[in-house]
Amino acid sequence: MEYKNVYLAAVGIVGAVFWLLDFFKIFQKTHLYAPQNHGKPVLWRRLLRFLILSIGLVGWAFLSYSLMQPRRPETFSSAKIKVNDIVMCLDVSRSMLADDILPNRLEAMKEKVREFARLRPTDRISVVLFSEKVITLLPLTTDPSLLDQVLAEISIGYLGSGTNIGDGLALSVARLVDSPTKNKIIILLTDGVANVGTLTPTQAAEEAKKYGIKVHTIGFGTDNDAKIPVGNGIFGTQYQRIPGGSIDFDTLKEIAKMTNGNFYPAKSKKALEDILDDLNKLEKTEIEKNEQVVYEELFYKFMLYGIVFLIGAELLRKFALRDVV
């Protein structure tokens, strides 16, 4: 048995108090009158009065109980939902400001990753960023609004200027090690070559393999030369030209192969969108979840009982006791 609002019973109790004040004519001015049943035995009248009092109190008890809105779970259904734990391991090195993918690689990545996350409301998703340093921007969460906000606010610069793929991947593995979910996935997106860090990318991949974590890798960027902003000068924003095709595809392929994941080259925003759509069809784990489907609402039945008892009490007061009501 469950109750939607226990405190509403107080309303019925207050109603019962006012009814008792009226029943015993408390606070009413004393006056003399000759009731039609004054000749009836006093004992009979007292018994009848006690009976009416009991009926009225039972009625108010039913009404008070009904106001608590009692209900009973009638049926349960066993529903299956599909879940994954996913870590988005994202490169935020300076080269992600390259303009070969408009408006730049970083903004294109943020847009498409946010779209990907919105399509997975049942999954827990974490965000790990890496450049020279690595950081967990967001632990595993199922809050879509928080995830969207965090992804939108990703920026360049505060993690240094290198590309630390190995430590970024290792931190992503650490986020998933204690997860109870069977399907643990890392999506690693980078546009460069590992050049700093404690672990190499393949050493981190070994750790992922050890814990049964699948790593999908995405090499993001074109083969064309691109420009990145390096500051402001006399003639406006100054740019530095960087060579295209500088992604370490071989290492990304090896990481994916070692962990039973897939490797994807993404040379445009549309290509990245298609890749994330493909990843959105990943195998999911089904878990059982009991869902309460139907409640039997009981309040109306007790309310009806209360009304009937109160009407009965008032009718007896009027016609049996000949009370002034």
Distance between the termini: 38 Å
**Largest sheet, spatial ordering of strands:** 5-4-3-6-7-10
**Strand segment tally:** 11
**Helicity level:** 25-40%
From the 3D structure, determine the CATH topology of the largest domain: Rossmann fold
Low-confidence stretches: none
Give helix and strand order, one letter per element, not per position: EHHEEHEEHHEHEEEHEHEH
SS-based structural class?
alpha/beta
Radius of gyration: 36 Å
Looking at how many chains there are and whether they match, the oligomeric state comes to single chain
Question: In a few lines, what is going on in this structure?
Answer:
With 325 residues, this protein is an alpha/beta fold. It has 2 domains: 2-74 and 294-319, no CATH class; 85-283, von Willebrand factor, type A domain (Rossmann fold, 3-Layer(aba) Sandwich), CATH 3.40.50.410. The chain is 39% helix and 26% strand.
